[in-house]
Write a structure and sequence with these properties.
109 residues, mainly beta, three-stranded antiparallel beta sheet, three-stranded mixed beta sheet, 1 helix, 8 strands, 37% strand
């Protein structure tokens, strides 16, 4: 798995834990994605007092995925390949995070 963030850090961090259920995410949906061989991408936002009070919306291209409030996360089942994410629906090149995943792999932001 390769993950890369270009540009200023979102309120997303790399998290190395798998004991999560998603924000508005049905655990059965995530488990079904894992069983079908899809990769799973977990997004998590910390609960820091120094973090912005704004709750960023995470996009994949023009598609709105979720709004991340402090100390929340969500799980996104995806097909194998490279996937791009941003806090805006029309990001500049330096405003995107990307990850390349294989079938059955887990990735964490």
């Amino acid at each position: 798995m390769k993950a890369r963030w270009r540009g200023p850090a979102l309120a997303i961090l790399v998290l190395f834990s798998t004991g999560l259920t998603g924000l508005g995410q049905d655990p059965a949906t995530a488990e079904a994605g894992a069983r079908t061989g899809d990769a799973l991408i977990y997004f998590y936002r910390t609960s820091s007092f120094t973090d912005s009070f704004l709750n960023p919306t995470i996009y994949s291209g023009p598609r709105r995925l979720a709004r991340l409030e402090k100390d929340q996360f969500f799980v996104l089942p995806v097909s194998a390949g490279t996937h791009y994410f941003s806090w805006t629906d029309t990001p500049e090149d330096d405003e995107q995070a990307w990850v390349t995943v294989s079938r059955g792999e887990l990735a964490f932001f």
